[in-house]
Amino acid sequence: MVMYDDVPMSDSSGEFDMLLNMGPQHPSTHGVFRMLLKIDGEVVTDAEPHIGYLHRGSEKLSEFEQYHQVITLMDRLDYLSNFNNEWVYCRAVEKLIGVIVPERAEYIRVILGELNRIASHLLFIGTFGLDIGAMTPVMFAFRARERIQSLFESVSGARMMHNYFHIGGLKEDLPEDFSVNISRLIPRLRQDMEETDRLLSFNELFVSRTKGVGVMSKDMAINYGWTGPGLRACGVKYDVRKAETYSVYDRFDFEIPTTLDGDCWDRYFVRVMEIYESLSIVEQALEQMQEGPVNAMGRRLVRPAKNDVYVKAENPRGEIGIYLVSDGSDKPYRLKVRPPSFCNLSALKELITDSYIADAVVILGSLDIVLGEVDR
Amino acid sequence: MTGLDILVLTATLFSVFTALSVAVLSLIWIERKLLGRLQRRLGPTRTGPFGLLQPVADGIKLLVKEDLVPSWADKIIFWTAPLLVIVPSFMIWVTIPISRNLVVENLDLGLFVIVALLVLSILGLVLAGWGSANKYGAIGSLRAAAQLVSYEVPLVLVVISVTVISGSMDLRVISAIQMPLDIAQPILDEAHSSFSNFNHVGLPLIFIFPLGLFIFLLAGLAEVGRTPFDIYFAESEIVGGPFVEYSGAHWSVFFLAEYMNTFAVAALAGLLFLGGWYGPILPEWTWFLIKTYLFVVIIFWIRGTFPRLRIDQLMAFGWKVLMPLSLMAVIIAAIYRFYNWPEWSLTLMSLSGLIMVGLAFYLRYTRPVLRLAEKYGHRSRGARNVI
């Protein structure tokens, strides 16, 4: 099943299958994702995902930009976790040129990265509720996310496309009122989160819609290359922050939340628990953070030696990998991104075959894809 | 029928039309404001005081929008479908008594007519989905047919049980038996009701027959397609279902019908279970409106709180829960009437039905959820401070 024309109108029994085109302009495909569903009444018998509507050639574009300029392209990959994207790219270049990032910069990166993880998960919780038909959680979640966005705005001047992490550290130090703002933010976030959580997580209708739907087994998840909350919902305790510790994550005390069933509710609830863990990481980082420089090398032109590196990090959606090749010039020779959303999305066909149409939407929502990252 | 009669009737119908339109506007405003408050927003504030003119502005916008017809649509069916939905919604109101005498045409079989007219909107929805030649529309209209037919049965059965209790299908009599005898007697006499003093109810039926209200509200919600039963136009799945190809004025007609049906279900709930227009001090029509808007607010509150059901859950709930329950409602109403038992016996029987449902719901839905919460050491509604 590829295009409309290729589909036989009826099978041998003479029964007709209906093809339903969902997306790219569909409210629940989370961006410009399109899937072609073969349906028999309310049941999806086959599914064909189509991607590429948001392809902007980010990887190729990077080859024509200087190393510093590529950061802005990384912002636009997973546009819900901008800091995390900038961070992993900066780490790749730093590894390439062998610069040590000052400690304060690392702490600030951790704080902003974890806050961004919370913001991203909050958006997931809200839109996931919306997919199921609950219209109130999205407002609660966005209100909490808005507080984080305001903090980001005060830090970087932008709400989403920050361009704040630079190679060797940060663009500049935090604003003076940051410590006041964040000390106000964290208890509020915790409160907001509990409200959202209480409204949605253990609502009977919500649980009956999501529990046991779109079940992914542990082995299948590993075979499909799943990472992030989706994998952890299947009971695999894998988190790059713990498995291959980077930055200063080894100095914090935090858990990797896992659940066992691997269904939509578990994928949702792992994210809920991660928000609480991230909040505790931010609090610990704020306690440990010292004064000091935030950039090791200023704004010098980066011209690494001929080499290649692969760096990975834990993004809100899973493991992001950057493969960076330099040919000695001031521009990357090749930049390859391993986006978590793309790998998670690859299991879609497996998951939504033989489910209801309504569940197909829920399953797609539970994968939490960002098309900017899938299509790049 | 003389010319004067026709003139009076026309004027009455016109005023009903106007009043209903105003009611729908108020419903839209209340819904937007209430949902806004539930979601920590203000709702509309800019058009008029408290955003009161927002529904009017919305209406103007809808009316001046281009009315698109898909070129592959079946034009006749496409244009007829909104009419088939809106006309029954209006006709329901012909026989709903706003107060003792404020009714266009009181019918002895008023409840029967209303239930019959409520079913008619299915036809309009199916034709809308079919005529727009859209797959989302087709799925939506088939869902609508399945949903409305399944929930029509409990609705009819609960109406029958109310009829059995009150001994009449005349809405005025049904309301009258929920009033003190001195107020009720003239109405009962006028309707030639055979109701004797012996088992006159006197209390609003909500206290005597809560099971009926429970079934009626749930089946009514499903009948008008409000959350959690908004399955046939589920925006996040089938993007509006039967209405997906409609725009502008024709879409607003569906919208109008939906709100009018919501209003009608709320009004019926008020008439059947809260004693209609009866109440102290305030004029009768005020009490009718207060009771109706009470149910309207409950319906909107549910919308702001709950997610949507899935189609199989909806059918299972309809046939496995509401259906036996409504049969039980008919039987206990019949027992109450046949043996002339006192009123508290009906209360007891209907409470036992509610407890059964509550228990079934607890076992099927709440207990797994609480276990889940316990498993992850998470505070749920029961234990808030565990985490």
Search tags:
A: 376 residues; alpha+beta; 3-stranded antiparallel sheet; globular; B: 387 residues
Describe this entry's structure for a reader.
The complex is a heterodimer of chains A (376) and B (387). Chain A is of the alpha+beta class. Helices cover 47% and strands 13% of the residues of chain A. Chain A has helices at residues 58-62, 67-75, 82-97, 103-132, 137-156, 178-200, 204-210, 218-223, 229-233, 240-243, 264-288, 340-345, 348-352, 357-367, 371-375, and strands at residues 18-22, 34-40, 43-50, 165-166, 169-170, 307-315, 318-326, 332-338. In chain A, the strands form three sheets. Chain A has a three-stranded antiparallel sheet with strand order 1-2-3. In chain A, strand 2 and strand 3 (43-50) form a beta hairpin. Chain A is globular, with a radius of gyration of 21 Å. Chain A starts with 17 loop residues before the first strand and ends with a helix. The model of chain A has no long low-confidence stretch (mean pLDDT 87). Chain B is mainly α and 387 residues long. Chain B has 14 helices and no strands. Chain B has helices at residues 3-38, 54-64, 75-92, 110-131, 135-166, 171-176, 181-190, 205-208, 210-224, 235-238, 248-273, 284-305, 311-338, 343-375. In chain B, helix 2 (54-64) packs across helix 11 (248-273) and helix 5 packs antiparallel against helix 9. Chain B is globular, with a radius of gyration of 22 Å. Mean pLDDT of chain B is 84; it is low at 380-387. The chains are: A alpha+beta (376), B mainly alpha (387). The interface between A and B is large, with 42 and 46 residues.
List the helices and strands and how they pair.
The complex is a heterodimer of chains A (376) and B (387).
Chain A: E1 18-22, E2 34-40, E3 43-50, H1 58-62, H2 67-75, H3 82-97, H4 103-132, H5 137-156, E4 165-166, E5 169-170, H6 178-200, H7 204-210, H8 218-223, H9 229-233, H10 240-243, H11 264-288, E6 307-315, E7 318-326, E8 332-338, H12 340-345, H13 348-352, H14 357-367, H15 371-375
Helix pairs in contact in A: 2-3, 3-4, 4-5, 4-11, 4-14, 5-6, 6-11, 11-14
Chain B: H1 3-38, H2 54-64, H3 75-92, H4 110-131, H5 135-166, H6 171-176, H7 181-190, H8 205-208, H9 210-224, H10 235-238, H11 248-273, H12 284-305, H13 311-338, H14 343-375
